[in-house]
Amino acid sequence: xxxxxxxxxxxxxxxxxxxxxxxxxxxxxxxxxxxxxxxxxxxxxxxxxxxxxxxxxxxxxxxxxxxxxxxxxxxxxxxxxxxxxxxxxxxxxxxxxxxxxxxxxxxxxxxxxxxxxxxxxxxxxxxxxxxxxxxxxxxxxxxxxxxxxxxxxxxxxxxxxxxxxxxxxxxxxxxxxxxxxxxxxxxxxxxxxxxxxxxxxxxxxx
Length: 206
Known about the structure:
elongated
């Protein structure tokens, strides 16, 4: 998914180069094409909102995972942190569904705008796939279950307890790194979207 986000950023970079060619700039400013460009500019706001929502969600989720890791290291009951994490995943899920509603477009003849529309649909599809990363909360539910079992069986050997805690910490650190990578990928995509949007606006105002 991270690789897909980076490749999408490269696609938008290529589209921006097409936008900036003299021939396409003249074509995009023609009356019919201009209308299509303006409509696509409006739809691009949906992508920016989606990326912004995803970035904020990943930041919150990383912080939540970090707090959970610290609780496990201290040997505390981490059920509160687990519940907080699950609430964040549900919140992010609802935000994504709310923002991604209006994304359809009519038949497009302009080559550059058609490329933008296709890239937009791919972007929404990929971001929706990224959303399924939130299913990782199931792993944290399992962690919660393991914690409760450890607390309920005080006779378990110290070595066994330490090994289990280390395993849980490694899983959480891996999850935190995954969120960080996805956050970086979405941030890169966001910047590329802004750049292509600015190029289109500059073309229309030239």
